[in-house]
Amino acid sequence: MNGTREDRDTELTVAVPAGNVSLEGTLGLVPDARGVVLFAHGSGSSRHSPRNRFVAAKLREASLATLLIDLLTRDEEAVDDRTAHLRFDIGLLAGRLIAVADWLAHAPETAHLPVGLFGASTGAAAALVAAAERPEGVRAVVSRGGRPDLAGTALGRVQAPTLLIVGGRDVPVIEMNETALAKLGSSEKKLVIVPGATHLFEEPGTLAAVATLAAEWFTSHLQVGERGASAP
User: Fold this and answer.
1) What architecture is the 5-221 domain classified under in CATH?
2) What are the residue ranges spanned by the domains of the chain?
3) How far apart are CA 168 and CA 190, in angstroms?
4) For the CA atoms of 116, 120, 124, 127, what is the dihedral angle to 10 degrees?
5) Per-residue pLDDT of the chain (232 residues; tens, 9 = 90+)
6) Are 96 and 23 in contact (CB under 8 A)?
């Protein structure tokens, strides 16, 4: 029986161990996936964010599995809502992202798939640190409106092909991304500015442009059979 892609896609709620906590996520599986993209959300965001879910759905249309995961527990999110501190703890976020990437490398549904990272805002810095720590396990990185500058010295150790996407009206973040781009160690790196877009890409068509750019980048760099071992 033939069905639409929506009929054949599967979303699973997962709990991923990361140190002494368990992180909640939504694993989106597609038939004949060419890779899996792990999302690192930005400041004050979550796996339920309409923006994140929109991009994830577009990636699944491009035959990429997705994992939307909250890098903070519910208790930590409650603290962060008051202090806005943990969302800038790049070391904490990157450590948990590495744990999740390692989990993907062993989960039955995804162990055969190369891993890409999609980071937004401060999550982009965590993604780049994770890529630096797992050079064989992370095959590509995309940043949306990110703060790659917060990855610090890890930028020079990133080997994965990296795409930085910034809104044309997000001037301070454009400058931060230009500086980070020059420091990236990737042999393949690119900065794309989406005209008319502000930081959250809320203008009509701008988030769709991000999703298209991300899908093209990941499908170009994630090939089944070319994944490295992401666990140490």
Assistant:
1) 3-Layer(aba) Sandwich (3.40)
2) 5-221
3) 15
4) -30
5) 233 344 467 999 999 999 999 999 999 999 999 999 999 986 556 677 888 999 999 999 999 999 999 898 887 877 767 776 777 789 999 999 999 999 999 999 999 999 999 999 899 999 999 999 999 999 999 999 999 999 999 999 999 999 999 999 999 999 999 999 999 999 999 999 999 999 999 999 999 999 999 999 999 999 876 544 333 3
6) yes
Q: How many angstroms separate the CA atoms of 23 and 14, rounded?
A: 8
3-state DSSP call for residue 104?
Answer: helix
Gyration radius of the chain over CA positions? 16
The Cα 210–Cα 7 span in angstroms is 25
The CB-based long-range contact list for 147-150 (8 Å cut-off, 24+ gap) reads 147/121, 147/122, 147/173, 147/176, 148/124, 148/176, 148/177, 148/180, 148/181, 148/184, 149/125, 149/176, 149/177, 149/179, 149/180, 150/88, 150/90, 150/122, 150/125
Structure tokens at 206: 């701008």
- Which residues does residue 164 pair with via DSSP β-bridges, in sequence order? 143, 191
* Alpha helices in 121-167, H assignment, sequence order: 122-133
